[in-house]
Fold these 2 entries.
Entry 1:
Amino acid sequence: MKNLPLSKVYQLLEPGPVVLLTTARRGRANIMTMSWHMMVEFEPPLVACIVSDANYSFAALRATRECVIVLPAVELAATVAGIGNCSGRDVDKFEKFRLTPAPAARVAPPLIVEGFANLECRVVDTRLVNEYNLFVLEVLKAWTDPAQKNPRTIHHRGDGRFVVDGRTITLKSRMR
Amino acid sequence: MKNLPLSKVYQLLEPGPVVLLTTARRGRANIMTMSWHMMVEFEPPLVACIVSDANYSFAALRATRECVIVLPAVELAATVAGIGNCSGRDVDKFEKFRLTPAPAARVAPPLIVEGFANLECRVVDTRLVNEYNLFVLEVLKAWTDPAQKNPRTIHHRGDGRFVVDGRTITLKSRMR
């Protein structure tokens, strides 16, 4: 995997893709599916996300303050839905979904080799966790897989429906 | 425009579309383009968003605590980019972009008739405004335009590139 400059991280998350989130606690890694996230700052990249306290990952994220955001392309769509349909309480999701963990550089939770990008994160603000389950993360290190060219992401529309990236248009824009 | 049950609002925002945000202050309405937003709660629908203090809309939103989130389909893409390229300090964007304001039911800022959905919002949490420009909004009332069937939204990828909704896939999912 190849290093991605932190200044470009927003280009991965701003379009609103469904992502995976890995955590690790007491030597055990877990994965959840997440689509409630947004960029907060360009650089250093800050990301806000909601991790429900109904998710097994919640306690691990709150206790360890570390996670990895993994970007899956559409080829992993069934895996992404499957990961959202079971709990790390009951199952080792890396094994069940035959995903390949790889060590991260700056945090304990693993990267997922099958993702086209991996973002190593630490929790930097928990003020809204109790009320909204809202964590603010800082991206410490970002990786992309050069072998996955032009990955198409998926976006959750509710009730198991996902919209896949279509064509790209370019407009004269001062938006960064 | 037709009433949308508040329980379905997340289906509009969760896929991560670029949206417009209207505010009103001292009798003057303004519009900005926004793509840093996420769902926080299903019902009542809560939404977090970043409105930079470099935007003219920031002061209006902070002072009045009201806004409307407007969802534009791809046909409005050039308008959406144009709105992001100028400031309400200098120009009346409704006039410049020939958009049609309509009165909202619960808040002072106007709806935009050309949007395929309009969400009337009030600010419910400002604890992270000073540090991150992060507002938490509650959606009080939601409208859709029944004449716009299957609208395709756009998602910002940085530097004026936007990805347009492609095909929809359905997977067995317990994700709401």
Entry 2:
Amino acid sequence: MTFELTAKDIHSKARAGEITTAHGTIQTPIFMPVGTAGTVKAVHQRELTNDIQAQIILGNTYHLYLRPGLEVLEQAGGLHKFNGWDQPILTDSGGYQVYSLSGTRKIVEEGVKFKSHIDGSTHFFSPEGVMDIQRTIGADIMMAFDECTPYPCEYNYAKKSLDMTHRWLQRCCDRFDSTEGKYGYDQTLFPIVQGSTYKDLRIQSAETIASFNREGNAIGGLSVGEPAEMMYEFTELVCDILPADKPRYLMGVGTPANILENIALGVDMFDCVLPTRNARNGMLFTSQGIINIRNERWKNDFSPIDETVGGYASTFYSKAYLRHLVHSGEMLGSQISSVHNLTFYLWLVKQAREHIIAGDYLAWKDKMVKQVMQRL
Amino acid sequence: MTFELTAKDIHSKARAGEITTAHGTIQTPIFMPVGTAGTVKAVHQRELTNDIQAQIILGNTYHLYLRPGLEVLEQAGGLHKFNGWDQPILTDSGGYQVYSLSGTRKIVEEGVKFKSHIDGSTHFFSPEGVMDIQRTIGADIMMAFDECTPYPCEYNYAKKSLDMTHRWLQRCCDRFDSTEGKYGYDQTLFPIVQGSTYKDLRIQSAETIASFNREGNAIGGLSVGEPAEMMYEFTELVCDILPADKPRYLMGVGTPANILENIALGVDMFDCVLPTRNARNGMLFTSQGIINIRNERWKNDFSPIDETVGGYASTFYSKAYLRHLVHSGEMLGSQISSVHNLTFYLWLVKQAREHIIAGDYLAWKDKMVKQVMQRL
């Protein structure tokens, strides 16, 4: 994997760059649609390419490990071959799901024992095991196995957890560096900064992670319930320490405003379930603001959902028709809303990139945050 | 509306023809995907056109009347404008849903009083009212308001009901002929043969319906639980009476075998929820036979769903991937299955048409019925 910086904003820390992987290049800043179980919910693969113009999607190690399972994925020749998405894929480490979905889990030095949310069966994830699983999935970008602490989190727990996350990282790197991709192409491994909402821990973690000198770095444990201002404070703190010549990935973020603000602080990559999950509840993000499509206001609005962002779903269907589908509980309602919201997210980061290159990112960002976050 | 016969099979009563409506032509025999509430469930409009190659879709008067309602449909300029489907649309009369969905309904000479399955509110459908509703929906082909009797049905009830259906038909025609389309294009009205499973009633009804001399005729009240052989017997009986120079529409039919057999008896048009409803349960109709995609057998089958029938969903995705999606309860599983099953149905009637024109329909049909109905 390589990363090239294309442009840096003068008035903020925003950067435009290009990541090159075995499955193609990614122009940053970028948003990665979440494809939990090998599918971005309600979205066809060609819609990802043609309408949404996604450049990389995310897969969840926890979900893929349970279903379809490693045997099927390996026989298919990896996730790209299995789901037909031949552009870059990033997989998380499964840690986050193990902590949040699994009712009973036990974290020890060796790893995490947990129960499947599907059938209650017992499983064990270790740093080494999770590397092996991600080798089998075949993601272009693999993530280290860490502990993502909740918010708020006691200082002592956060410190103990962070030290273990750093020891786990060493084990991840040892396993990663002593193995090879299974399908004839290179993969890379991103470590993750943790440290909850404690400055000294975040600084210590960012310095430790930077010292591993991997090809890219991630920031985890934010956007877990803390105020947005606090998130921005820690993003900036950490970005300033992480090397400038490597991509920075802020995990699980966020709203359109969160994304634009964090880009200004030096973040290059984002992922979040928000655009797809909220789509399924009838909440649309558009270039003009936020729409609750269930509202009476849209009943007779026969204008397209959002002509500005382009793509079939956003320009072909009207608000009134989509409102009808959502009210009627029709699957097509979720399909249109999901494709639209992702189209908007990808449009937004593309716009951001252009304004970074044009040199007016900060002014555009301040205007845009207000515009896209207003309720219509 | 016009109908031209293109070819007639020598060895059976199968015909190939062409129906021309204000929204384009339809090559018969044809299958019409069911778009209940203005959406073919889980299918995008461009998938209907490009992948499935649908030529006409069905809308349900009952559902559209309740949601989005007539005010929205009229403001939109009719259903075509509302959902963006600019090819032909046929609407049923709402009768079938009123009888089957509505818990409490009362049928009197004037019409039917029923309760909405959504909110329990009381409504009244009369032959005249249903004509007005279908004028507002703007379907190219409207259906008469009839009573569809259940199976089995007492002779006396069937006879009484049939007489009323014929009186209602006169009222439908009177209203239809004294009104005009609301959106500047012509609509047409098909009457419906009823008579349950009684030969004398079916003959009487077919003769009555034929005497109305409308532009096309429908056969209702079959495929409601009676044995397939009985359905074929009555289809043939009725088709022989209905005029040969008008299209014949067999309502609510059926399996691939049902369709091929009824084509051989002189039917030109079909609709059924089977391909989409069964798709959502993981049952696939393919050119090679019937697949329960949940079965272990498909777990590692990375071949396309059905390359023979063409279209994106059927050729891009593998059986193993689709099985995974269905097992995981992913919406994309229903989407792929629905598009595939409809692609197969449209492929099947297109093949039927070609074999009618080529003159070898009967032999092809006998082979094909066995092939597509076998369980793989």
